[in-house]
Design goal:
Blueprint (H helix, E strand, L loop, with lengths): L11 E6 L6 E2 L4 H7 L13 E2 L2 H21 L2 E3 L10 E2 L4 E2 L11 E4 L2 E4 L15 H9 L3 E4 L32 E4 L2 E5 L6 H11 L5 E5 L12 E5 L2 E5 L16 E5 L27 E4 L2 E5 L3 H9 L3 E5 L4 H4 L7 E6 L9
Parallel strand pairs: 1-4, 8-9, 11-12, 14-15, 17-18
Antiparallel strand pairs: 1-19, 2-3, 5-6, 7-8, 10-11, 13-14, 16-17
Length: 352
């Protein structure tokens, strides 16, 4: 079946689930520091590259197997990327790096109806990460799916800054963005400017999607450190969940003005463990909010997030609990770990 996915809540039919196999900690360069470790000093990050701890890898893969089996039993078709050795070095004329992983299919492919857009990641280590999906993408192209690739970025050192963390660490020098910088809301798309998405990325994407009938909305000054899917989580038309540290009743993307809002604070979460050396983590405890919707009334959620499950239950949303023991160490919860390529439902407008 050809790709068709327009939001995060229509009934899920087909999905990719990532893999931890072959993952490494990538070459520590400004692009990796900007993406995952901007608040840490260079001293704290020394040696944080190369093979992962064996327990982290094994538990991460075990939990993705459980997720895959759970989705399959629900009746969802599950694809897995072919394991790849991401320790292999590659170069541009300006830098050399290893890869990173295939743990987060969500990050570099943006499905919009029957189109998939490959992103321009600001991390050097991710420049060939989508290759594990190319067999699938070629097949989809033959079935009529539009496959578009965002311009390849250059990623010189002068793209990144660490002097002022009140603004993004990625300067507006290039078209760089990743798919979770975008919140899909049918014909409306919300684009977050952050360490993983420049304003030029917004301007490029606008030239692609708006002639196709979409409206791209800009979100700035909410959260700069990477993606938006632990900050703004639409659960169904008319209901959105916000990270209460980054959004408040007076400060949230105004596209949601008429929607019911759930503000989730850290008191509503159980902080996942960070298991990298020196207590370093590539993402915050808010990864506990990162969930996958099966439909408007059911989500897959980290089994430790019982307080959040109780909140969702008040809104008639059932939680399917699965383990996510290494979400914080590997930088990815269940939304990150997956890529829904087919949901039952068409392209609609929810804001007319």
């Amino acid at each position: 079946m050809a790709v068709q996915s327009n939001n995060d809540w229509d009934p899920l039919e087909e999905i990719f689930v990532g893999t931890a196999k072959g993952a490494v900690l990538p070459t520590m360069d400004p692009s990796v520091r900007s993406f995952s470790y901007a608040t840490y000093s260079e001293e704290e990050l020394k040696g944080l590259e190369g093979p992962h701890d064996k327990q982290i890898m094994e538990e991460a893969e075990e939990d993705l197997e459980i997720l895959s089996d759970t989705l399959t039993k629900i009746g969802i078709k599950v694809h897995r990327p072919t394991p790849t050795d991401h320790s292999v070095e590659f170069s541009s004329p300006d830098w050399t790096t290893t890869g990173w992983y295939s743990f987060c299919p969500r990050d570099l492919l943006l499905p919009l109806d029957n189109m998939i857009i490959e992103c321009s990641s600001p991390m050097r280590a991710r420049q060939y990460e989508t290759r594990v999906y190319y067999d699938y993408l070629y097949q989809q192209m033959k079935e009529g799916v539009q496959w578009i690739k965002s311009p390849a970025p250059i990623l010189k050192d002068d793209l990144y800054q660490f002097d002022d963390l009140s603004v993004p660490t990625v300067k507006n020098n290039e078209i760089v963005w990743e798919a979770p910088n975008i919140v899909r809301l049918g014909k409306d798309l919300l684009y977050q400017v952050s360490n993983t998405g420049s304003l030029l990325g917004y301007e490029w994407l606008k030239t692609i999607v708006e002639p196709r009938g979409y409206k791209l909305h800009l979100a700035e000054d909410f959260y700069f450190f990477a993606h938006f899917d632990s900050t703004v989580i639409p659960l169904r038309p008319g209901l959105v969940m916000f990270n209460a540290e980054r959004c408040t009743p007076d400060h949230y993307p105004k596209i949601f003005e008429s929607w019911d809002k759930i503000f989730v604070g850290m008191e509503d979460l159980v902080a996942p463990n960070a298991n990298l050396p020196n207590g370093v983590s590539p993402c915050s405890p808010w990864i506990g909010m990162n969930l996958l919707s099966i439909n408007e009334n059911c989500v897959v959620i980290d089994k430790d997030q019982e307080p959040l499950m109780r909140i969702l239950d008040k809104y008639g949303i059932e939680s399917v609990a699965c383990p996510a023991r290494q979400a914080r160490s590997m930088s990815g919860g269940f939304h990150c770990n997956t890529l829904d390529v087919k949901r039952k439902g068409g392209l609609e407008s929810y804001f007319d």
